[in-house]
Write a structure and sequence with these properties.
Layout (H helix, E strand, L loop, with lengths): L2 H8 L10 H8 L2 E2 L3 H9 L7 H9 L3 E4 L7 E4 L3 H14 L2 H6 L4 H15 L7 H10 L8 H11 L3 E7 L2 E6 H4 L8 H16 L4 H8 L3 H11 L3 E6 L2 E6 L11 E4 L4 H4 L13 H4 L9 E5 L2 E11 L2 E8 L5 H10 L1 H7 L3 E3 L1
Parallel strand pairs: 11-12
Antiparallel strand pairs: 1-3, 2-3, 4-5, 6-7, 8-9, 9-10, 10-11
Helix pairs in contact: 3-4, 5-11, 11-13, 12-13
Length: 354
């Protein structure tokens, strides 16, 4: 079983088969959203020809949004999925933040008051930047010092009140979920578990149950329940001590592109607890120095992460520098130089590797 090739195929990185940003996001279930520019590239590289403006429009028209569902971490999700995902994941995320709330002196009464303040400040279709949200709290004599402001926004988002919506000067503003997103059908908890498991295993296979537990932030029992619900649609294969699940009709595509410039935080790497199938442990420090949670953009050749890259974007073009883990052959260096032309097309700028 060629795990890297199958993941590139199922994640729609090799031979993209979808046509709209919201389709990509829905297929993945969600993708890491800490780095907004990087998240837009993660979406676009899974489409045949999308530009930054195309992906930005999907955000600005409410088709996709950023909020904190899986593991309480900022993700991009399809707007139509937001409510049932939060219903499923928020209780565990909120319960796990109890000690943090106490440290920040944010009790239930204060947080309820924050939700009232935001409801009043945003009602009528208004949108506010983070600074505007903090200003609304300050007017209500609620401190946002330290990490209080961020945690208040996080808590209100997990309660399904607010989400990051349209962009203004490259920063997304906050809006009320019920005004920004049209009503969507509710799901039972069992339906939501099965749906999240399906989104994960169909888009990221081959993957293990442990990968799904880590990615979703669900309890082990909940994750097993979700997997059991869709198991008739999957097959398993054991490699070493690990059992991988994948769709019954999976196949390794022939002739698919195999060299890519992925952004930091891309799901090809971060969508799994165990990343050894695509990244040697000896190079993990170079991708995420010191385990600080900040992931570099990666150079992927034949499914393996073989280096990192950085870019400098100017009005006249994009200059890209690479830091390969080992010396790249002239052929591989040219393959990467060819692959980053897609990144230039995304920005509608010429690109060169320096």
């Amino acid at each position: 079983m060629n795990i890297p090739a199958l993941r590139l195929h199922h994640q729609h990185i090799a031979q993209p088969r979808l046509t709209r940003p919201e389709q990509v996001v829905a297929w993945l279930g969600g993708l890491q959203g800490q780095d907004y520019p990087g998240a837009k590239w993660s979406i676009a590289l899974r489409l045949p020809q999308a530009t930054e403006a195309d992906v930005g429009q999907a955000f600005d028209t409410g088709k996709i949004v950023r909020t904190w569902p899986m593991r309480g971490t900022l993700h991009v999700v399809a707007a139509s999925d937001l409510r049932w995902m939060l219903m499923l994941t928020s209780p565990r995320n909120l319960a796990g933040s109890a000690s943090r709330r106490r440290a920040l002196e944010l009790d239930d009464t204060t947080l309820a008051r924050c939700r009232e303040v935001f409801s009043q400040a945003l009602q009528g279709g208004k949108q506010l930047s983070r600074e505007g949200m903090y200003a609304a709290l300050a007017q209500a004599n609620i401190s946002t010092s330290g990490q209080r402001g961020y945690h208040i926004l996080w808590s209100c988002a997990l309660h399904g009140l607010i989400c990051l919506a349209a962009t203004n000067d490259k920063e997304q503003n906050f809006a009320l979920v019920d005004e920004w997103i049209a009503p969507t059908p509710a799901k039972s908890r069992d339906e939501a578990l099965a749906e999240l498991a399906a989104r994960y295993f169909f888009s990221r296979s081959p993957a293990t149950l442990q990968d799904f537990i880590w990615w979703s932030g669900l309890s082990a029992a909940e994750a097993r329940s979700g997997l059991a619900a869709i198991q008739p649609r999957l097959v398993s294969e054991t490699v070493g001590s690990r059992t991988y699940w994948l769709p019954a009709d999976s196949h390794t595509p022939k002739g698919a592109p195999s060299t890519f410039a992925l952004p930091g935080f891309d799901e090809y790497l971060l969508g799994y607890k165990d990343r050894s199938a695509v990244l040697d442990a000896t190079h993990a420090e170079q991708v995420c120095p010191g385990g600080n949670g900040v992931f570099a953009a990666t150079l992927v050749i034949d499914g393996r992460v073989v280096g990192t890259w950085k870019r400098v974007v100017k009005k006249t073009g994009i200059a890209i520098t690479t830091t390969p883990f080992t010396h790249l052959s002239p052929v591989d260096a040219q393959r990467f130089a060819d692959a980053v032309q897609r990144y230039g097309a995304f920005h509608k700028l010429p690109v060169r590797v320096v």
